[in-house]
Design goal:
The protein is α+β, with helices and mostly antiparallel strands. It has one domain. Helices cover about 15% and strands about 30% of the residues. The strands form two sheets. A six-stranded antiparallel β-sheet has the order 1-2-6-5-4-3, with helices on one face. Strands 7-8-9-10 form a four-stranded antiparallel β-sheet, with no helix packed on it. It is globular, with a radius of gyration of 16 Å.
Amino acid sequence: MFISPTPLNSAKLLAGTDNGFSGPAIQISVSLGETSGRFEVARVIARVFPQQQSFVRELIEAHDGLLSDSNVVYGPYKTDKLVHLDRNTVEFQTPANTDGLGTMSRLRKNGQPITGAIILTGDTPDAVHLSIRLNQIRLPLLLTSSKGWRLKYDRHNRVSFVGGDTRALQLPS
């Protein structure tokens, strides 16, 4: 799901030919560990969930070159600020003009930081990835979805996110 104050070109987004978001935007994506999303799940696990590395190793061994150690970077981005809430949840902030978990989305780096969270769910696992850059949005902002997701951004630059499994996050400002 993408939210932006600028018009979205859905044809380009779905085709993957857009250049991403250089301004304010929110992206919530779900990568399914049992489907083609497993490669993205593996890349996220390699970055910030060391206790789940067996998923990455098993995927590399099982898929004859579709994913290899050369496609996976182990360990966090050097400039990201991370807060591990539990073994399956990490909050992050990617600083301005740097690559990090925030730019592992359609949000491009620019002069504003990207805040977000990644939650691993299920036995497979699946990954929910939230990336937020809201530098010029009128606050407060509350977004809800029919799937049970709720995102609130207040006047003090505090973000809270509640997923369908009712896990609540207070993201760093």
